[in-house]
């Protein structure tokens, strides 16, 4: 008799095979039988006799699920003790402290390589990417927080190349959200030609460019210039058109940090977080001084060390960050169509990820959190500046506390959909379904279309129904961290919020469009879900093409696939052309 394969079996499978096929006498007793200690009386001893160590429980651990043990999670005669094993997370010295603290708060245990078997962990979260061998060896109960191949998006030169390719394939009108970019040294002559051509066209007017190291982050090594003689050519740099008409708030430049979680590339599944950060420069925008990083760069790593960081600044208050919801509410107060802007951002996220999705390697049980940096210009056009892997999760100021909830919601999200096993779909199907059922039950037995039984703060969400018309439905978000909101209140300084008359002229966005009636914290639960909240049918089963991913987990909202056609086009290989057609339709509707 063979010993059951603990690596590829769930505890149920292990126990099942034990009961039916495995004579105890033929198995070795492993030294680590520690998990059996918590099993019902007698069972631990029997397992030890049989020589089985049980890997930690790898079911879905949402906060409530972790506390309440759901009887339906257990297979008929599975010993309940097996479910009481805490989940185990693995970290290294680069793991953000907030991740560890959130997981401990959720009742997880920290992996201890001295004490535990090498494979006895459920989630490995670190800043750097994983080696391909680590991906290949991942076990069905394990998750890694990076997907292989995503540097194609997160290196500035690669991003530029991929988006350029997409522009060639699918047209400039769709892919015009990245500023004109030249990758050095290859594009040097093209850049020089463009520079002088533009100079000629502009006459006495100046043009502005920004040079950024392809691989660095946090504003390091950046140079902004107008005069060619200030341009220093360097390898591994990109030169990009400098957006010289940014949307200013209180005359300060800002950009948006949007959190995006891809829970799988095959099939492609993209969630956008409905809260985020707005990062401000801390000195007033001034094109006559391009050397002042505090006026031109919005990186908080730079601005938090500036002399003006602590000062109360016009409109933005003190510090250098707002939440995204505060930003949208500011836009609404100026009668701006923030919903349209948000829709454009969703499209931009999908179009960007589509640029690499067909070429990333298949990998099981991993996800990727991206930080999209987006600058809005004064005509409210969003520009993609860069995509970050491992976006900063440090808590520098009270606004940053949203990152705690972000981490909670990521955990909910990855376990709501169940561990993903691209290419190993069948073997773990049972386990995944159990997770989904558990998740469903954990949300009070509601299907996703019942829209979020979370408490607190109601807002109006807009969802697209089958014919893409907007329907409105009251749903709730749960910014459950009370201390966060308190701090946020202190930080936000509502008295700073209104513009002075002088301010108005300079700060008001140029385009003012349709008024959006909602005056609430987060504007939308979903912009794209074609499976409307109206019907009582489960939105997960959309068609014969396959099962739709869950539409929402916490503040994460599914943006791709966004209708039946895109669901179909993302199964059995990614049909990018078809998806682009659907996006085009959607965007045409947005503009009409
Ligand atoms: P890093 O990875 O170093 O943060 P980014 O591309 O995000 O590099 O640029 C840093 C900052 O520089 C941005 O947050 C933004 O404020 C500014 N910036 C970058 N590119 C542009 C651009 N094309 N136009 C205007 N501002 C830009």
TrEMBL record:
UniProt key word Ligase: yes
GO cellular component terms given for this protein: ciliary basal body
Keywords annotated in UniProt: ATP-binding, Ligase, Nucleotide-binding
Region ranges (Disordered): 53-78
SUPFAM superfamilies on file: Glutathione synthetase ATP-binding domain-like (SSF56059)
Name of the gene encoding the protein in the UniProt record: TTLL2
Name this protein carries in UniProt: Tubulin tyrosine ligase like 2
GO molecular function: ATP binding; tubulin binding; tubulin-glutamic acid ligase activity
Pfam families associated with the record: TTL
Organism: Chlorocebus sabaeus (Green monkey)
Domain of life: Eukaryota
Biological process according to GO: microtubule cytoskeleton organization
UniProt keyword Ion transport, yes or no: no
